[in-house]
Amino acid sequence: MEQVEELTKLLVEFYEKFSSWEHEVVRGEPLTLSQMHTVEILNSQGALKMKELAEKMGVTTGSLTVLVDRLEKAGLVERRPHETDRRSIRVLLTDKGRAHADEHHKLHSRLTQELTADMSREDMTALAECLRRMLANF
């Protein structure tokens, strides 16, 4: 139980620091953190139905509609009818949206490099495996 408590404390501390870093990165940018996360998801997953995107973000489709409206107005995403399901709308990144996502990804990569700078290749492999297992349990 002592080990679980230590892991809990470390996970919460890491989350808080990562969250602060994320907020700092978007401060002064034209996008909110939620908008940036939307762009990131679409960049990594490709075009998604609104319902799929809402599930990945953990928000309601109503909240997502407002968010996507703003991203569409900024020219970062577009809505298209689904090819086979006439009731569904897919959201995809524009070239401008992809460029935004690529720039943000560079910041994530730089942070990862900084955080793992003193780790061996074996440590990094072990960390990746631990994170994969943890994500599978979410």
Q: How would you characterize the overall build of this protein?
A:
By secondary structure, this protein is mainly alpha-helical. The chain has a single domain (about 30-135), classed as Orthogonal Bundle (Arc Repressor Mutant, subunit A). About 70% of the residues lie in helices and about 10% in strands. It contains six helices and three strands. It has a three-stranded antiparallel beta sheet. The longest helix is centred in the first third of the chain and has 25 residues, at about 1-25.
Describe the protein's topology:
Elements (H helix, E strand, L loop, with lengths): L1 H25 L6 H13 L2 E2 H8 L3 H13 L3 E5 L7 E5 L1 H21 L5 H16 L2
Antiparallel strand pairs: 1-3, 2-3
